[in-house]
């Protein structure tokens, strides 16, 4: 036992010598922690400056691309992904859908043009001003500070509604950046559906007459805004919305909804687009504009109406056979009809599988 004790003591002495030689401290001291934090802050600042330079260069390329004048000598590389909240403004919404704005702000300098409103956030009348302002700052805030870098417009209060209503949008560059982060599936020049990548932006202009705004459909933009809002999460030092506790990584918007600080969270219709869609859709003599429906409402709704149309046309066969069976046959001769009906059902399901697979391939 004495020999074992001596070996254990010797091993401990050797361990201390090794630790001293390689310069490892068992417990970090306060000065070392402060030094490490200052280094991390410096690295974050350098990274933010690099992102700002890349963002400025991408903004210049996008502007030239919209004007139809490719900029010579500037090419996207794998790391040129925009991260700022500034850029070209979106098209203005027509038809007077929304109330006049009071202070469309967002991004870096608060001077971006507020375009279409893609999401509405309505606060409770009982919500404190500190909580509301804190959430607005998170929506508008910089990405490095945990914000979403979105544009915010406040709807004026009326006698009927005293609750605060915010309209949320984003710059064109921010839409493309978030679509890249989400791994959006979009059609490329070659006709292949693949992950959207800002670094290969020109690959997604599959039509010569296509504008920059046409890459993302209205449904895509609503999904992007919803994703960006729901992914505003509490940082380590943020333990509460004023009056509401948070835990690290919790979705701030979902927490505010749970505590009824936010009472409504929904997207808006665009009347000009709906009128245009109505003109080509709600007519019995025309086929359904499935691609236009998908662009406006999204893939799931587009697939639903495609199935309804396909199923309606397919019902012509059993309808004709049923009428013939009812007129020409006796009551005891219904078995052949049901056999034919069963065959029709199997054929219909197989044909729908092919059609739905074609939609899934084209839409991604």
Automatic annotation (TrEMBL):
- GO molecular-function annotation terms? chloride channel activity
Q: Give the top-rank taxon of the lineage listed in the UniProt record for this protein.
A: Eukaryota
- Known InterPro entries for this protein? Anoctamin, Anoctamin_TM
Q: Which UniProt keywords apply?
A: Membrane, Transmembrane, Transmembrane helix
User: A Gene Ontology CC term for this entry?
Assistant: plasma membrane
- What is one Pfam family matched by this protein? Anoctamin
**For this UniProt entry, what is the primary localization, expressed as one broad class?**
membrane
User: Residues annotated as region Disordered?
Assistant: 77-113
**Domain called Anoctamin transmembrane: residue spans:** 293-364
Localization recorded for this chain is:
Membrane
> What membrane topology term does the record carry?
Multi-pass membrane protein
- Show the stretches that span the lipid bilayer: 304-328, 334-352
In the record, the note on similarity to other proteins reads: Belongs to the anoctamin family.
Please give the name of this protein.
Anoctamin
């Amino acid at each position: 036992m004495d020999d074992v004790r001596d070996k254990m003591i010797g091993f401990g002495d050797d361990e201390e010598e090794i630790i001293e030689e390689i310069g490892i401290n068992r417990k970090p001291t306060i000065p070392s922690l402060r030094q490490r934090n200052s280094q991390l802050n410096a690295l974050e600042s350098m990274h933010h400056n690099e992102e700002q330079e890349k963002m400025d260069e991408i903004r210049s390329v996008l502007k030239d691309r919209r004007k139809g004048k490719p900029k010579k000598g500037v090419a996207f590389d794998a790391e040129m992904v925009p991260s700022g909240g500034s850029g070209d403004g979106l098209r203005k919404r027509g038809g007077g859908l929304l109330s006049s704005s009071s202070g469309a702000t967002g991004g870096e300098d608060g001077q971006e043009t507020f375009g279409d409103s893609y999401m509405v956030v309505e606060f409770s009348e009982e919500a404190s001003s500190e909580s509301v302002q804190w959430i607005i700052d998170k929506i508008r805030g910089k990405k490095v500070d945990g914000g979403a870098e979105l544009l915010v417009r406040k709807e004026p209060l009326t006698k009927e509604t005293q609750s605060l209503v915010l309209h949320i949008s984003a710059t064109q560059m921010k839409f493309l950046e978030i679509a890249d982060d989400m791994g959006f599936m979009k059609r490329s020049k070659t006709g292949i559906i693949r992950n959207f990548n800002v670094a290969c932006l020109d690959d997604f202009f599959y039509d010569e007459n296509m504008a920059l705004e046409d890459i993302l459909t209205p449904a895509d933009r609503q999904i992007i805004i919803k994703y960006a809002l729901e992914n505003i999460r509490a940082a380590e030092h943020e333990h509460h919305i004023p009056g509401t506790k948070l835990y690290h990584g919790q979705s701030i918007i979902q927490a505010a909804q749970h505590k009824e600080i936010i009472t409504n969270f929904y997207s808006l219709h665009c009347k000009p687009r709906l009128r245009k869609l109505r003109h080509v859709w709600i007519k019995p003599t025309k086929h359904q504009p499935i691609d236009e429906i998908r662009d406006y409402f999204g893939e799931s709704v587009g697939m639903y109406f495609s199935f309804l149309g396909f199923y309606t046309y397919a019902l012509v066969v059993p309808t004709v056979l049923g009428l013939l069976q009812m007129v020409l046959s006796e009551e005891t001769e219904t078995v052949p009809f049901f056999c034919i009906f069963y065959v029709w059902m199997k054929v219909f399901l197989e044909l729908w599988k092919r059609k739905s697979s074609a939609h899934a391939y084209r839409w991604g």
